[in-house]
Amino acid sequence: MLKGIGASEGYGIGRVMLVVEQSLEYTPKEITDVDAELERYRSAVDTFCDNTMAQADALKESAGAKEAEIMMGHIAIIRDPFMGGEIENIIKAHQCAEAAVEQVCKMFIDMFSATGDDLTMQRATDVKDIRDGLLAILLGVSEVKISDAPAGTVIVVKELTPSMTAGIKKENIVGIITETGSQTSHSAILARALEIPAVLSVPGAVSQLSSGEQVIVDGSEGDVVTAPSEDEITEYTAKRESFLRERRELENYRGKATADADGTEYELFCNIGTPKDATKAMDADGEGVGLFRTEFLFMDRNSLPTEDEQFEAYKQASLIMKGKPVIIRTLDIGGDKEIPYLGLAKEENPFMGFRAIRYCLKNRDMFKSQIKAILRASAFGDIRIMFPLITAVEELREGKALVEEAKADLKASGIAYDENIKVGVMTETAASGVIADLLAEEADFFSIGTNDLTGYTMAADRGNSDVGYLYSPLQPSVLRMIRRIIKCARAKGIDVGMCGEAAANPMMIPLLISFGLTEFSVSAPSVLKVRKNIAKWTKAEADAVAEKVMAMATEAEITAYLKSVI
Ligand code: PEP
Ligand code: MG
Questions:
Q1: DSSP per residue, 99-143
Q2: Is 453 part of a structural domain of the chain?
Q3: Residue to probe by mutation, ligand 1, list 296, 299, 426, most atoms within 8 Å of CB
Q4: Interval between CA 323 and ligand 1 midpoint (Å)
Q5: 192 & 332 share domain
Q6: Ligand 1 atom with least separation from CA of 332
């Protein structure tokens, strides 16, 4: 078994086609007839643009208009006067067109690759694609022909470029394996758009696999099963069939409003951890971001991210979401989330310790820099602030006062922000549930964090399997907490969402509809499933279920009953 990144969900069983790139080597030569060489270069560009346009048309058919734009982007890049001008200047200095193209492209590739930013680095792949396309035309080498692949092919290639993807015949390619690429690379986006299972960044894939051998591509888990046994083939065939059946059914919910069977609408948002995840939220048809867990920006590094770095991340998420709501939760460290460079003291009881909003309010400079970054980003979209682990009204007041201070600082420096930015509370502690009436007076919205709310209500550590039998959002106590939080929010007319895992649980959905939840925030792959599950219920049916459930005394009884009705 080989491991990589599952970049496009699903299961493919087929035979490997190794795509080995053609040699684009040449011997650089000095040219004498500059005009003729310029003509040769310009005609290569014309041919390249014609080919690319044809590829874009093919892609529009197979993957969609948005994906075709990626190819059209290649034309925009090569027709850019700066890039073209630089190439022509080198030719005018008597170098051959191949060398000129190579040098200028290298300059752009190095520049884009050095940024470390995924979206910009993707531009480097685009320029490589352009360079190879132009060199192939200039050298008269024919490019790799994926379009000839027979049915049942698994493409294995070092790097899948957009132009290669354009040659893919969806009906023939059952899987894609590459040695490079990430969730957000163009190849991943295109694989998802073509609905071809893909595992990217598999180290040594090209040298370890050979053309003709049978493999299974598990794009959901990021696995490549080599030399599969009969049993494995049977197992994955069944997985594939049930995956496709569910996908077909769920696709009916794409692009639709999220509404129950009476037509009452709900917001269906996604939980994200990085700006890149916003792409997944958009691909999944999420209607916004209900929880941006910002602690991921603080992890895997040796020092605090600066205000500017954070601003860029929050702004990027908002831009990717195209102005849809983005709820940014301020730093939630401690408990099970460690950030070594902060040097937090070891505690006897970290889940009840100096963490999240408690830590932030005592480290005001750090907290204010995060709030300023969020405020600055709020000038670019519908951004909202959410405080984690609130247990007392004072914490909300202090946090809001800091938001006002940060606004005043920005105003004094003439920096734009959303003056009416909403400030909400993550209701995830037992205390916040009990004082939900008081918090609702001063918060702009609530989001119920059932992952922690369950733990804090049941006094059962969410990570301790010995007490796992107590850790359930279907415990009568937790359901009463949830019902109370929603009721208090609705009484004050503020929005109330849920961003804990329970929001995607089909057994919870009728209860949440009945209690009056207005927003669900779930992981990207759950979006269409949750939309489908919400659509099943009328309010009257949901109320009848909730009434029965709320009269039951044990979690076991509740679970058994809900299983029987969903
Ligand atoms: C929660 O506690 O329910 C939640 C969504 O946040 P996290 O899982 O990050 O604690
Ligand atoms: Mg939490």
A1: HHHHHHHHHHHHHHHTT--HHHHHHHHHHHHHHHHHHHHHHTPPP
A2: yes
A3: 426
A4: 24
A5: no
A6: 9
For the segment 94-111, what is each residue's pLDDT rounded down to a tens digit? 999 999 999 999 999 999
Closest atom, ligand 1, to C-alpha of 295: 9
Which residue's C-alpha comes closest to atom 1 of ligand 1?
449
So what's the pLDDT on residue 144? 61
- Enumerate residues 6+ apart whose C-beta is below 8 A from 143: 22, 132, 133, 136, 163
Query: What are the pocket residues of ligand 1 if the criterion is a CB atom closer than 6 Å to any ligand atom?
Result: 291, 293, 332, 428, 449-452, 499-500
Q: How far is the CA of 255 from the centre of ligand 2 (A)?
A: 30
Number of domains in the chain: 3
Distance from Cα 327 to the centre of ligand 1, integer Å: 13
Q: Whose CA is nearest to atom 7 of ligand 1?
A: 451
Q: Could you count the other beta carbons within 10 Å of the beta carbon of residue 464?
A: 11
In this structure, is residue 243 part of a structural domain?
no
pLDDT digits (tens, 9 = 90+) for 504-537: 999 999 999 999 999 999 989 899 999 999 999 9
Judge if 134 and 85 occupy the same domain.
yes
Catalytic annotation, residues: 186, 499
Look up tokens 């991210």; give the residue: 305
The atom number, within ligand 1, closest to the CA of 271 reads 5
Ligand 1, closest atom to CA 450? 3
Q: Which two tokens stand for residue 45?
A: 């560009």
How far is it, in rounded angstroms, from Cα 24 to Cα 6? Answer: 31
More confident residue, 525 or 376: 376
Regarding whether 195 and 296 lie in a shared domain, the answer is no
Model confidence pLDDT, tens digit, residues 290-310: 999 999 899 878 899 999 999
Q: Which of 269, 272, 293 to mutate to test the pocket of ligand 1 (most atoms within 8 A of CB)?
A: 293
Query: CA-CA distance, 169 to 196, in Å (whole number)?
Result: 10
> By mean pLDDT, which of 122-131, 136-145, 263-272 is the weakest?
136-145
Which ligand has the shortest distance to the CA of 272? Answer: 1
- Express each pLDDT in 150-173 by its tens digit: 899 999 998 887 777 777 888 999
Measured in angstroms, how far is the CA atom of residue 334 from the centroid of ligand 2? 10
Element spanning 514, H or E: helix 509-515
263/114 Cα distance (integer angstroms): 50
Rounded Cα–Cα distance for residues 513 and 532 (Å): 13
| Segments forming the whole domain that contains residue 481 | 262-565
> Among all ligands shown, which has an atom nearest to the Cα of 295?
1
Q: Which two tokens stand for residue 171?
A: 């009906």
Question: Residues with Cβ < 8 Å from 148, sequence gap 6 or more?
Answer: none
Q: Which of 109, 139, 169 is the last residue of a domain?
A: 139
What is the number of the ligand closest to the CA of 497?
Answer: 1
Question: Is the same domain home to 320 and 181?
Answer: no
If asked whether residues 288 and 385 sit together in one domain, one would say yes
In terms of domains, do 503 and 435 share one?
yes
| DSSP character string of 396-428 | HHHHHHHHHHHHHHHHHTT----TT--EEEEE-
CB-CB neighbours of 468 under 10 Å: 12
Domain boundary among 90, 110, 139: 139
Q: Tell me how far the alpha carbon of residue 562 lies from the centroid of ligand 2, in angstroms.
A: 25
